[in-house]
């Protein structure tokens, strides 16, 4: 158990490097581990279950009293950013519907479950952050196929029914099961089972990213400027998600805690969901943008939260200095 706790802490500390390293492992070991890609949906379902054990239905009641921040974040996640991503994809890669679909896929998936870790770490509004994750996760099986069908359904063949079924099994069922257990145990399962599963959940991240990466190994071996352009496009779009979240919090005049929750959840994505769907239903050209997105995820959120924290500390110090001057 001591080893597992140490492993969990190590993974949390180095999370910004875990996904890039896992991607490299998948590309290098593709001939040896590619045949095990069938494990990915099950590993992802386990990640969803483990990540949802700390969630209860009660949090949504609290946010229901002030739903505007939740509505705004959902709008950014599933209307504003998908439209921007689709427009940019059409503008830059009009002749390649698979690249357009891949870029769009990154920005129709739900907010990242790990966003709660960053919100908590930087004293954000945990209740708001958790509510966004819960509602976004539960609606994902409906939102993702609908968004893809609406925007690229005429250009790319979609198995929306199969996608819907997989999302139900990978996200909705394990999330509801975990939330029900949390409710029945009055939150105790978060203290008992969740810590025990945390190391295995981190290991599952490595499994999911590494195995998914095997499908795009040929692209990395034959890397060219078009692929670099896609990587830069995904990076800039990912940054813009945080910017839109921060601007929304400023317009609503949110306090620091709400600003952190809104900004982080508007920017982070459960990109592994997109990667899993791409590996199951699309060619490698669609999967490349999704996998590239994993490279930026943890690094970007670490920069964004550090900037928000530094800005808040500066604001507090200025207020203290002003009070001292007035006295």
Structure, described:
With 327 residues, the protein is mostly helical. It has one domain (34-320): Up-down Bundle (Na+/H+ antiporter like fold). It has helices at residues 2-13, 15-28, 30-33, 40-52, 58-64, 68-92, 97-106, 115-121, 126-152, 160-184, 188-213, 217-221, 225-251, 256-267, 271-281, 284-326. The chain is globular and about 70 Å long.
Provide a quick synopsis of the model.
The chain has helices at residues 2-13, 15-28, 30-33, 40-52, 58-64, 68-92, 97-106, 115-121, 126-152, 160-184, 188-213, 217-221, 225-251, 256-267, 271-281, 284-326.
- Beta-strand content: under 5%
CATH topology, anyone? Na+/H+ antiporter like fold
Largest sheet: none
- Give the C-level CATH assignment: Mainly Alpha
Ends distance: 55 Å
Give the low-confidence spans.
none
Helix content: over 70%
CATH architecture annotation name: Up-down Bundle
Q: What is the count of structural domains?
A: 1
**What is the number of beta strands?**
0
């Amino acid at each position: 158990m001591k080893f597992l706790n140490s492993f969990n802490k190590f993974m949390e500390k180095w999370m910004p490097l875990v996904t890039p390293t896992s991607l490299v492992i998948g590309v290098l070991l593709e001939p040896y581990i590619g045949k095990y890609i069938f494990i990915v949906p099950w590993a992802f379902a386990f990640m969803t279950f483990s990540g949802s054990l700390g969630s209860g239905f009660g949090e949504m009641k609290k946010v229901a009293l002030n739903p505007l921040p939740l509505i705004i974040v959902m709008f950014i996640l599933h209307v504003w950013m998908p439209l921007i991503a689709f427009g940019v994809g059409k503008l830059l890669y009009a002749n390649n519907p698979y690249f357009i679909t891949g870029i769009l896929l990154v920005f129709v998936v739900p907010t990242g479950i790990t966003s709660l870790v960053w919100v908590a770490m930087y004293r954000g509004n945990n209740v708001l952050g958790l509510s966004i994750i819960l509602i976004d996760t539960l609606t994902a099986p409906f939102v993702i196929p609908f968004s893809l069908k609406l925007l690229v359904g005429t250009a790319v063949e979609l198995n929306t029914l199969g996608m819907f079924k997989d999302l139900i099994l990978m996200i909705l069922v394990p999330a509801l099961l975990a939330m029900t257990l949390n409710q029945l145990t009055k939150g105790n399962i978060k203290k008992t089972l969740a810590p025990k599963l945390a190391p295995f959940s981190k290991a599952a991240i490595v499994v999911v990213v590494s195995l998914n990466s095997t499908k795009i190994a040929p692209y990395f071996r034959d890397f060219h400027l078009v692929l670099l352009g896609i990587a830069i496009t995904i990076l800039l779009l990912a940054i813009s998600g945080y910017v839109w979240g921060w601007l929304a919090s400023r317009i609503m005049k949110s306090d620091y805690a709400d600003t952190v929750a809104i900004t982080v959840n508007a920017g982070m994505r459960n990109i592994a969901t997109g990667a899993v769907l791409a590996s199951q239903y699309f060619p490698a050209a669609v999967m490349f943008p999704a996998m590239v997105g994993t490279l930026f995820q943890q690094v970007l959120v670490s920069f964004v939260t550090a900037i928000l924290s530094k800005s808040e500390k500066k604001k507090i110090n200025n207020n203290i200095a002003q009070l001292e001057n007035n006295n």
